[in-house]
Fold these 2 entries.
Entry 1:
Amino acid sequence: EPEVTQTPSHQVTQMGQEVILRCVPISNHLYFYWYRQILGQKVEFLVSFYNNEISEKSEIFDDQFSVERPDGSNFTLKIRSTKLEDSAMYFCASSYSGGFSSTDTQYFGPGTRLTVL
Amino acid sequence: AQRVTQPEKLLSVFKGAPVELKCNYSYSGSPELFWYVQYSRQRLQLLLRHISRESIKGFTADLNKGETSFHLKKPFAQEEDSAMYYCALMDYGQNFVFGPGTRLSVLP
């Protein structure tokens, strides 16, 4: 069964550095998402992406964040200048129909643990 | 604003006992609700969604609009059911709003 993959599994960076988290969604999916989960807290929506542009973004997704689909397979989340509070597990997800089909859902990747020192 | 609550952070039951994981939501529209499960060191995976009204791994969940609840139930818990369970609501933008999660521990 196809799966969403994410790299790296763990990223350690210094405060103020830029990081790029990578995701390969399921190949025929059209909608892409990023979520984050700070340790001990709930999973929070960051951004959704469709047709090469952002569809929705949360308050968390400020100017420090950007997303890109640089080619036909990758979907990246960039944090321009990391802060200590960006330390979290970042999950990528993809879906075929964006929830418009009752048989579809979002499929999650295994996550990237980001540690900002 | 849409919100999902799961009042129990941790729920421990003995193997073979019934289990109920509570979920309540607040949403102004017609909600679409899901249960996701995360086994140890694995990714979030869909367990079930209310619209399909199915039973997966013996789990069922009924949407009660009057009580704004979507509790997850299983009549006889198994040790392999031990995991984090997240209730989630799909909002108008087709994005998920997750509850804080309940850790289910099934004791032998």
Note: The mean pLDDT of chain B is 90.
Entry 2:
Amino acid sequence: EILMTQSPATLSVSPGERATLSCRASQSVSSKLAWYQQKPGQAPRLLIYGSSTRATSVPARFSGSGSGTEFTLTISSLQSEDFAVYLCQQYSHWPVTFGPGTKVDI
Amino acid sequence: QLQLLESGPGLVKPSETLSLTCTVSGGSISGSSYYWGWLRQPPGKALEWIGSIYYRGSTYYTPSLESRVTISVDTSKNQFSLRLSSVTAADTAIYFCARVTYGETYYFDYWGQGTRVTVSS
């Protein structure tokens, strides 16, 4: 089973600032990585798949990059609605696995 | 707009069977490009994929739960269901149903709101 880790556990930023979140896989997952946003009491929302492809209706301030074992989610200018937990998920190896999340707070 | 809604008991006794149903609206569960999955999120822990089903009935389960899990589908009702047997406190979690886009990909693009299940006597 592929182990996904995320850093930092918590990222404190101010509105308008740039946020950079990291996700690491225990072995190569190629570009088969997705990112989700989860707000308290809500289901995850798909943001990015294929490491860098934005899902439908996802604002351009969200961008993903990376391949192999190292991935990055960048939020170029944080809006108030972006404060949430961000999860990564690999789908290269069976079973699919998720990271523990990075909380982005004010 | 596709919507998914989980339903089922919020409290299950240890050693009993957890049963949940996901009702899909705004689209057909019989679409050929998608699987339908169950996931869970224990308190303070990472999200875990439990298993998925195709509308024709083929299933895939995560190995750690495979011996206790059954996922079934009822296309006439546009629903799919989860049964998890012999539950313990470790099965306490928020359970989500989701649509799976598969092929070269395997991600979850539509989700239910989640339902909290507590295992306790």
Note: The mean pLDDT of chain B is 95.
